[in-house]
Amino acid sequence: MMKITLRDLKIDPAALGGEASPGGPGELFVVFTRLTLSGFGGVLPFAQRVLVDDRRWLSQQGFLRLLSVAHVLPGPNLVNLALLVGEQSWGWRGAIAALAGMLLAPMALVLALGLLAGSWSSLPAVHAALHGMALVTAGMVIVMALRMAPLLRRRRGAVLWAAAAFGSVGLLHWSLLPVMLALGVPALLIARWSGGEASQEPAQRDGAQS
Amino acid sequence: MTAGFAMAAAVCGHYLLWSLLSVGGAIGLLPDMHRYLVVDRHWLDQAQFNAALALGQASPGPNMVLVSTLMGLDMLGLAGALLAPLSLVTPSTLLAMAYSRYSGANPRAPWLRALHDGMGPLTVGLLLSSGWLLARGTAHDAAQCLALAVVVGLNLRTRIHPLWLLAGGALAGVLGWI
Fold first, then answer.
1. Is the CB of B137 less than 8 angstroms away from the CB of A134?
2. Nearest to A138 by CA among A127, A146, A126, A149
3. What pLDDT is recorded for position B30?
4. How far apart are CA A197 and CA A46, in angstroms?
5. Would you say residue B107 has pLDDT above 80?
6. CB of A121 within 8 Å of any CB in chain B?
7. Which of B105, B90, B58, B94 is nearest to A116 (CA)?
8. Which of A43, A69, A83, A136 should we substitute to test contact with B (largest number of B Cβ atoms within 10 Å)?
9. Rounded Cα distance, B19 and B29, in Å
10. Which residue of A145, A206, B148, B169 is surrounded by the most CB atoms within 10 Å?
11. Do residue A130 and residue B51 have CB atoms under 8 angstroms apart?
12. Which pLDDT band, with edges at 50, 70 and 90, does A196 fall under?
């Protein structure tokens, strides 16, 4: 894929790869609010439908490109995705509008839910329902890890890195900061300087999860 | 008052740090959040931790931001409900903004690729740690372990919508099956 520079993006409104582009920060806010609210139990499939098929702000390629970047950078993937779409189309104003759209309504909603659940938490039924949902969440997170596991076959030693992370954080309960310094930094440097095989679009091959 | 302020500062500082450590998605942070907030500090109990996770996961939007909103609400009230999620997104957002500006969000950039290749395996390990932590916190008897296995199987083998699974889990909980 060709390298797209910032300059190209600023000059060409279709640089996100779509046939249309956001009309302005207000439109970004509205579209991301609708998108985030419709994505019960996983926003990513909706994101693709809204941004690529409905709005045509992004081509399929452009979506995967931004998604892979959003997935790899630190931070919640969806928040990063909103930020990238906003920033690449309308600069910092677009970024703020897209982020606000992504966050404000869901946070207000979950806050209301939390206050309700808090005042009802003495009811055994509420407690039992929440426990059942937490159990399901545990299963969903395990599946997320299993879906990413094929990644471990791509590089030599990858299983060892994963096992070291699981052993230290998952089994020994060490704190994450020293573990990331001890494991993450060398892993990053080794991957950077071994450079090596051109990996494809990360999100495409890993089936990125939100 | 000063104790409350110190706690707010500690909560804020940890969410800021977690933001930068959440390479590959924020769910991998759960073991460290549990270790610090539940085990070390007792600012949340296990039931509150589970409830924040369950509600945040069932609500529409970026799930870990919502989980953090609920954790903040339990720890520090409404102020915490803003402080925790905003601390979780601010540093990573600034980083992503800088990245978007200076390298045009190019996934082929050498450092981004190194981040993907190098951190990918660690992300898998952290996700597994999160799954392990949640399984230990919720599956205590045979019926619960069976339910967990069913969820994993359904999720892997079918395209069933996660919301149905969550609704099923809530129902099974209310009926006293799990």
1. yes
2. A146
3. 96
4. 32
5. no
6. yes
7. B58
8. A136
9. 9
10. B169
11. yes
12. low
Alpha helices, DSSP H only, in B22-109?
A: 30-33, 46-58, 63-103
pLDDT, position A204: 44
Q: Which of B18, B59, B107 sits opposite A106 (nearest CB)?
A: B59
Query: How many beta-carbon pairs under 8 angstroms link A with B?
Result: 396
**Chain B residues touching residue A177 (CB < 8 angstroms):** 17, 21
The arithmetic mean of pLDDT across residues A126-140, rounded, is 92
Q: What is the chain A residue with the closest CA to B79?
A: A111
Is residue A28's pLDDT more than 50? yes
Mean pLDDT score across all residues of chain B: 92
A78-108 pLDDT tens trace: 999 999 999 999 999 999 999 999 999 999 9
Name the token pair of A119.
């005042």
Q: What value of ipTM does the predicted structure carry?
A: 0.90
Q: Which residues of B touch A202 (CB under 8 A)?
A: 107, 116, 120
Mutate which of B46, B103, B128 to test chain A, going by most A C-beta atoms within 10 A?
Answer: B128
Nearest to B113 by CA among A164, A38, A69: A69
The residues facing A74 across adjacent strands are: B23
Work out the minimum CA distance from B46 to partner chain A, whole angstroms.
Answer: 11
Q: What size, in residues, is chain A?
A: 210
CA–CA distance, A151 with B125 (Å, rounded to integer)? 11
The pLDDT tens digits of the residues spanning B4-46 come to 899 999 999 999 999 999 988 899 999 999 999 999 999 999 9
Q: Which residues of A touch B24 (CB under 8 A)?
A: 71-72
